Amino acid sequence: MNSSHSKIFSSLRKSLPSDEIRLEPALLEKYAGDKWFASRIPDAVALPRSTESVAKLLKFATKNQIPVTPRGAGFGYVGGCVPVQGGIVLSLERMNRIKEIHEDDFVAEVEPGVITQKLQDAVEKKGLFYPPDPASRADCSIGGNIATNAGGPRCLKYGVTRDYVLGLEVVLADGSVVKLGSRTHKNKTGFDFSRLFVGSEGMLGVVTQATLKLIPLPPYRACLAIGFAAMKEAIKTLRTILHTGFLPCALEVADAFTLAAARQRTRSKRLNGCNAHLIVELDGQEASVRREIQILLKVVKSQNPLFIEKGLGPDQCEAIWKIRREFSYSLRDTGLTKLNQDIVVPRGRLEDLFRFTAGLQKKHGFPVACFGHAGDGNIHVNVMVDLDQPDATKRCNAALDELFRQVLDWNGVITGEHGIGLAKKPWWPLATSPAVRELHSRIKRALDPAGILNPGKFV
Amino acid sequence: MNSSHSKIFSSLRKSLPSDEIRLEPALLEKYAGDKWFASRIPDAVALPRSTESVAKLLKFATKNQIPVTPRGAGFGYVGGCVPVQGGIVLSLERMNRIKEIHEDDFVAEVEPGVITQKLQDAVEKKGLFYPPDPASRADCSIGGNIATNAGGPRCLKYGVTRDYVLGLEVVLADGSVVKLGSRTHKNKTGFDFSRLFVGSEGMLGVVTQATLKLIPLPPYRACLAIGFAAMKEAIKTLRTILHTGFLPCALEVADAFTLAAARQRTRSKRLNGCNAHLIVELDGQEASVRREIQILLKVVKSQNPLFIEKGLGPDQCEAIWKIRREFSYSLRDTGLTKLNQDIVVPRGRLEDLFRFTAGLQKKHGFPVACFGHAGDGNIHVNVMVDLDQPDATKRCNAALDELFRQVLDWNGVITGEHGIGLAKKPWWPLATSPAVRELHSRIKRALDPAGILNPGKFV
Hints:
Two copies of one chain form a homodimer.
Chain A: H1 3-15, E1 21-22, H2 25-30, E2 44-46, H3 51-64, E3 68-71, E4 88-91, E5 98-102, E6 107-110, H4 116-124, E7 128-129, H5 142-148, H6 155-158, E8 165-171, E9 177-181, H7 193-197, E10 206-213, E11 215-216, E12 220-228, H8 231-243, E13 250-254, H9 256-266, E14 276-284, H10 286-301, E15 307-312, H11 313-333, E16 337-344, H12 350-364, E17 368-373, E18 378-385, H13 392-409, H14 428-431, H15 434-447
Parallel strand pairs in A: 2-4, 3-4
Antiparallel strand pairs in A: 1-2, 5-6, 6-10, 7-11, 8-9, 8-10, 12-14, 12-15, 13-14, 13-17, 16-18, 17-18
Helix pairs in contact in A: 9-11, 12-13
Protein name (chains A, B): FAD linked oxidase domain protein
GO molecular function, one term (chains A, B): oxidoreductase activity
Cofactor (chains A, B): FAD
C-alpha cells in the first residue's frame, strides 16, 4: 500500500466505527479469495456492522474511485469475490442477525451474513421451510447465495434463491439506500428490482438486508438410490419418472468415473458394474410419500436397475445422501485438482452430455467426473487435473473450451449456480451476444457509473 | 391526426409489410384501452407479424420521438395499454404461434400473442403443465401475462408468470434485438434480465418471443369448499392448513358481502348464515391426493364449519370452482361498477384486512366485496360503486386512498398481479420511496432514453 492510499484509508476510518476498516497484513491475506484458486490481497478489509457503515463506505469509495469487492462467506467456486483491482474487500460477515421469523406471514428478515444452514435450522424448528440448499450451506451465507442466485438439489421442485427473495435492502454505489420489493408473497409494484440484484455478483449494489419467503415444512421425506449398468438407462428412468407426473424434490445423477472413485474409497461391493447412479427424493405428507415411493419403486424396477435402495424418513434419507457426499470426497482422494464446472443443458440433452464428456476424457487425457442435479439438466462436470504436469492449465482450458462450446451449441449455459466470476470470464464473450453484453454495460453504468463495485469481473 | 403525423406514418408504412400499420378510425377505436375505464384513441395501430417489423417500428419511433404503447390481448385491469400520449399502439396479437413444445426439455417456445389457455391446453395434451392461471386466461395472452407478471389461484403453490420465464427475445426502444436467458431450467450467466422485463408493463422493451418452463402435469386434483359463520374461523382454518405442512395449489377466500350477492343470484340455501367461504385445492398423484383431502377434511372439521363440500377429480373440482366464478357474476348482478383492487397483505394480516374493509364499507357507504387468493395474502378488494351518484368517483378515490394507506402501513402492497398502469398511478408515490422511484428512472433512461415506450405511465 502506498502512502496516498494510507492517507485515504485513515480518512475513511475516521468516519466509521473503530475496527470496521482493517489494514493488518495477516487479516488482509484471509480476504484474498474464495474456493477457486485465484487470489489477490486487498488494500483494506471493511467489516461493517450496519447499513449506515456500508452506505458511508460506498459513498466514500465512489468519491475517491476506490474499488470495493463485496464478499459473503468466501465459499464461492468461481473467484467472484477476488479483489482483482485491489482496494477494499467489503465482508458482510458481521451483519449476521436473523432479525425475525414470522410464522403467520411466512417471512424471515435476515442480514446478509447469516449462514444458510443456520437460517434453515431456525425456521424448521417453527415448522417452516427455506428450501435453497447449496452444497456448502453449512458454511455459505445468505448474502453470498443472493449474489450468485445459489441453487442445490432441492431446487428442482422448489426453485433457486431468487424464488425466495421477496425484498432487499440494497446500498447502491453512490451510498444511497433503497428498499426493494416487499414483505408480501406477491407484488407487482413497479419493476422487479429485488430480483435484478439477485445473481448480480456484487456488481450492482450491496445487499444489507433480505426479506425471504418461507413455505410450510413438508413433514416427511423418502429417497431411492438406484444403480444402473449404463447411463442411458438412468436417463431413461429420469424421463419416465417426470412423465409419470412426479416432480421430485431432488433427482441427482452420478457417472461411471465418479462411481469408480467411490468404489475405491468405500469398497462398496454394490457399486461393482454400476456405471450410473440416481437419487430420487420425494417430500410431503407422510402417508402420501410412503405410497408414492412405492409407485416410484415400480416405475424404477421396470427399467432394469442393478440395485435399488429405499430410504424412509429423515435418517434413512440422510444415509443415502451421505453416499452422494462421498462422491465428492472420492474425487478428492484421487489427489487430482477438481475443476468443477456447473454447466446446464436442456434436459433432453443429458444423454448427449454424458457421451460427450466421456469422449472429452479420452481425447484430452484428463479424467472427467460428472454428477449433479440431473432433473434440472444442471450437471457438475469435474475436470480432474494434476496441476504439476507440464501445460496442465493450458490443456485443461482447451478441454473446458470444447465443453462450453458444445454445451452452448445445445442451447445450454456455462453456469447454472456458481456464476461467472473469474473462472468463467474467459468464456463470457462466447456465452453472450454483443447486444446482451451491451445491455449489461448500460445497466452497470446506470447503477455504478464510477465502476467501483467488484471491478475486473465480467462487466 | 395532423398532416405531419400522416406524412410520418406513410413513411413508416413503406418500410413494413403492407397492412402492418393501420390508420382506419374504426380500427383505431378498438385499440383505445383495456378492461379499465380509461381510453384514448391512438394515431396508428401496428399489427406486426415478425420481430423484424417490431425492430423497424421501434427504431423509427425512437428516431421520430413517437410514443409506442405495446399491447397484449387488452384484458388488463389497470389501463396499462391505454396510449395516453397518442402515437402508435403496438399489438402483438398476430405473433401468436406456439413454435415448439419440447417434451423432454420441458420447454415451450411461444410468440407473445398466444392465448394463455391455448398454451395450457396444448401442453397438457402432452402431459406437461404451465401453471400460471389468471382469471382471464381464456382471453389474455402470454405477452400480456409477461408484461404484468400475471398470477392466479394456483400461484400459491406454483409461483407466478416470472417463475416460468426462462428466456425472452426483446426488442429494445432503439430497435436492437436481445435474446435473454436461455432454454435451460437453471442459468447464472450474467444479470437476470429476462426477469427484469417480466412485469415491466411495456416500458422497457417489447417481448417478441418467450421460452417458458414447463413441469410435469400432476395427474389428479381434489377440492374442498367450506362455509363458515365468521371470517375469523376461515382465517384460522387457513393458518391451520398451512401449519399442517400443506402447501395447497390454491387457497381462495370470499367474504360476507360477496356471499350475500351469491345467495341472491344462486338462491343457494346452503349459503344461509355463511359469512366466509374457503376453497382449498390439492394436486398430485391420485392416491396421495385422495388421502390428503381426507386429512384436510379432518383438519377443517375441527374448525366448526357450516358445511364442507368435497370435489374429487377434475369434474367435481370444476363444479366447485364454478361457485367461485359465480361470485364475480353475482357482484355484477348488483348493477354497481366493481372496482377491483388486487392488494396484498402479509399473510398474518388477513383477518385485520377483512375487519378493515368491513369498516370502510360502513364509513364510506359503498359496498366492499373481498375475495381472492388468501393463501398469498392477495385479496381482490372490490369497491362497488354507482357511478351515476354525485361525487361517486371522488368518494370512491377517498375510500381507495384509505385502503391503500392501511395496506402499506401493514407492509402490504397496492398491487399483486394487475400492475400499476393508470388505475394505481395516483398512489405510485405513496407506494414507493423517492430512492426507488429514482432507480426506476435510471433504468428507464438507460433502456429507453427517448422515453417512447408506454409514456405517461408510472415512470
